[in-house]
């Protein structure tokens, strides 16, 4: 050690040697620490500048916050009737030529019954004019043949109930492929029936049944049945006379609200509303539904998320995503619905998330062949789903 260093590190009188070394050590590392901080700051600034410079100049601006629009149930307006087809022009049948009248015999001089020259023409024109009048319909009969226009409510929701169809879906439990499930949907314009069957391994099928009629608020359930596996079915009855919902699972009864639905009829109610006015359901639009389960009734707020690509059997298709918002604090049960315009706004995907994390999923797998009974019935105002436009996803083989 040099003389200079020995003087520099020499402790003051009365100061212990270890104290002097302890106070000098931190001061030695302070400049290096400051330099490291400065270098790190410069590197961070350079990285930020590089990241910003890599962004494209035409990058879209940040999406502004969506204005939530809350829709409540109200009377629906039936779809406008299709204009009547013009009647095919009828060609009047030409009159048959009448036999020539016999020549009159020679009349006496005092007789004035000389035949007029226009009489045969008038006689032949008589049948023609009569047949023309018979061919031309009267104004009363013409107005009676045209269907009367259905009344519409300017303030009501546009509503279009899906036609009758037998739908099938691939079922997945926690992402694992399961057996094929089905949705039976029947609609004759006045009544409906919906049966959802979801097979589950080791448990048995889950069968949900809903039937009722169609009123001024849309689909109106009269009875909802829920059977899980081998257990007895739980039934909810919608009593329209007493305005109450009664259950077989519990003795309590709850008031029946206008437009009330059950757990699965609400899917078709939503599809009917979207079919009637698809442009109305934009991201952020939330609609409230009064929905009954097998033992209770509550409000379901269903929000429009937006259009997304859904992969079903055979490919991708564009669908509008709807999700049920939490009904209360800590609600962990979720429901997501995707409606596809390529299949008439029918559900192409349904995802149910249970509170324990279990997920049951339905993915569109095509349409079942129409039954002979449904084809032979030919109910007015209904059609099979096979009459809908072809979906974007490829059709599976018929069973």
Spell out the blueprint of helices and strands:
Layout: H1 3-8, H2 17-54, E1 69-71, E2 76-77, H3 119-135, H4 139-145, E3 157-158, E4 165-173, E5 176-187, E6 191-198, E7 206-215, E8 218-228, E9 234-239, E10 244-247, E11 253-255, E12 261-262, H5 265-276, E13 285-292, E14 297-312, E15 315-324, E16 334-340, E17 346-353, E18 359-367, H6 372-377
Parallel strand pairs: 1-13, 2-3, 12-13
Antiparallel strand pairs: 4-5, 4-18, 5-6, 6-7, 7-8, 8-9, 9-10, 10-11, 13-14, 14-15, 15-16, 16-17, 17-18
Task: State the secondary-structure class.
Answer: alpha+beta
Distance between the termini: 97 Å
Mean pLDDT: 73
Count of beta strands: 18
Please state roughly what percent of the residues sit in beta strands, choosing from under 5%, 5-15%, 15-25%, 25-35%, 35-45% or over 45%: 25-35%
Helical content class: 10-25%
**Poorly predicted segments:** 52-67, 105-154, 371-399
Query: Sheet bearing the most strands, described?
Result: 16 strands, mixed
From the spread of the alpha carbons, the general shape counts as elongated
Radius of gyration: 40 Å
Along the chain, the helix and strand elements come as: HHEEHHEEEEEEEEEEHEEEEEEH
Keywords: Membrane, Transmembrane, Transmembrane helix
Transmembrane segments: 29-46
InterPro entries: DUF3108
Protein name: PROLIN-rich signal peptide protein
